[in-house]
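Researcher: Please predict.
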Amino acid sequence: MSGRAQAAPDNSGLSWSQLRAFEACARLRSFASASAALGLTSSAVRYQLSLLEGRMGVRLFERSGGRLEPTKSGSAFAERIARPMRELEAACAQAIEIAEEEPLTLTAPPLFARHFLFDPEFLKWCEDRRIRLDVSDTKRDLFARRPIAAIRMGVAREAGLATVDILSVSLVIAAAPAIAASASPHDPSWWARQTLIKMEISDAAWPLALSALSLPTITPRQTHRFSAYAAGLEAATLGRGIILAPLPFAKSELAAGRLERISDVEIPSKLVFSLVMEEELAQFSRGRALRRKLTSVIASDARQPGRSTPVAS
């Protein structure tokens, strides 16, 4: 029976979701099978089909228990859209294939790249997928014509961009061995003779570190300020002062003995690294694969001596 549905035709147009739901129902003849094939709930398939019938003003299926039987209108519609649907799916697949072949740039700050991205296995993984690594503190335009993803610290959410937190950083009090050997971290007079190495992004953590040591506010002999963690770490290894060293990035310096912790205090920080890219790129297989790979690299590092703190997805 091909009776007219009660609702008047809606001229707002058809959607791809509605057509996919209809095609699956026409091919598989049940909501349960169609929902399984589409990876949707049965209620979602029913909803899309009802929207399609409402917009066309035509009943496309007779429902009988769990079975679907196309009406005369439904059969004719299925026949007419079969080829265009196949061509549209092929066009989508071709467009995705072309997009996947276009080089993708992954930009990352030197501090992150040095610790996580220079491993030969990761570089080979990128090469096989036409992903070019760009190590720079410069913020690139993520809406540029060519696809680009960025690892950024402390990023604010922005419309049109997919942002996933992948690593949180903790801080430990550390210094070069010569300084650490004579350290008295619970003695305010010792701190008054020291030089602090400070970075703007970790300044707020110093009061927390001193509080953990049960110390009042201190006045160090002098303070050296750095805009980048990498430069501050280098200064600390050269014995120029005491630093709130970021984990996991200071792990190599600590493991090699270029830095030593002067207390067991470890301060959780608000420093979070995120993977950021256009929402469209994030939905493509290459964007999803990059996220999974970076998550895997960070998790692997966390299992090594020292600590990385991956952020739960």
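Model: The two ends are 50 Å apart (CA to CA).
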